[in-house]
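quick q for whoever's on today - can somebody do inverse folding on this one?? i tried earlier but teh output was garbage lol. tokens:
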């Protein structure tokens, strides 16, 4: 799966780039390296890139701007790297088109696992033909721009909540167990218990349902798990 895939690493810290390059090449990927935004865009335009690892803080162009420029013409997966851990920063990054986040300091092995998880999700979307847009009642899902709105306003889902919700929404009326949601929606390094999913579902319902105790979108299938009860996408 990994052979012949090219990953573009964009970070101005040479040591980080060197370590990531070594681990990813060992994992079977071809690597391109850029230390600023201008060089990153040049490499991206001239090579067939399968995934971008993009630092938020670059010397010339902010990572969010690079992400937006890439998203103008490409749906290539983008994993942002940041020392920021504030929720609003994560949501902002996802809203401009990032597929996932890695926080500094990080383990190179974690990065490899994260890349493989993101690529699996992308390949799954391509195979199942996920649509770009969904609207039902007051719920709007913009898959391309990773945006969920309810009653005309941003739902404010956290990155983890978004992944769980979108996994359900992509397969209407399919029941997912808690274990399946962890496998399909979250990366391999999720260290929570399967019952953590219940907490995330409760929070998602609070943000998108009129009445969390009488949900119409995310339904509990007793003894099994959860499903998205919206119309077929």
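ok took a stab at it. sequence:
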């Amino acid at each position: 799966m990994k052979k012949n895939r090219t990953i573009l690493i964009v970070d101005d810290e040479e040591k980080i780039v060197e370590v990531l390059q070594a681990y990813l090449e060992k994992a079977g990927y071809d690597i391109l390296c850029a230390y600023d935004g201008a060089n990153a865009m040049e490499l991206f335009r001239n090579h067939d890139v399968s995934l971008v690892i993009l630092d938020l803080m670059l010397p010339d162009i902010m990572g969010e701007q690079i992400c937006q420029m890439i998203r103008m013409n490409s749906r290539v997966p983008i994993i942002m790297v940041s020392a920021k851990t504030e929720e609003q920063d994560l949501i902002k990054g996802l809203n401009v088109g990032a597929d996932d986040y890695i926080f500094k300091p990080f383990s190179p092995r974690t990065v490899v696992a994260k890349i493989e998880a993101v690529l699996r999700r992308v390949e799954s979307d391509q195979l199942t033909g996920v649509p770009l847009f969904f609207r039902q009642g007051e719920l709007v899902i913009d898959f391309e721009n990773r945006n969920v709105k309810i009653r005309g306003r941003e739902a404010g889902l956290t990155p983890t909540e978004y992944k769980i919700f979108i996994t359900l929404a992509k397969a209407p009326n399919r029941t997912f167990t808690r274990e399946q949601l962890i496998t399909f929606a979250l990366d391999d390094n999720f260290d929570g218990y399967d019952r953590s999913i219940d907490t995330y579902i409760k929070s998602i319902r609070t943000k998108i349902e009129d009445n969390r105790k009488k949900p119409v979108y995310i339904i509990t299938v007793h003894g099994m798990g959860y499903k998205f009860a919206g119309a077929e996408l």
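fwiw The chain is about 40% helix and 20% strand. also The domain at 133-228 is CATH 1.10.10.10 (Arc Repressor Mutant, subunit A). so keep that in mind when u check it
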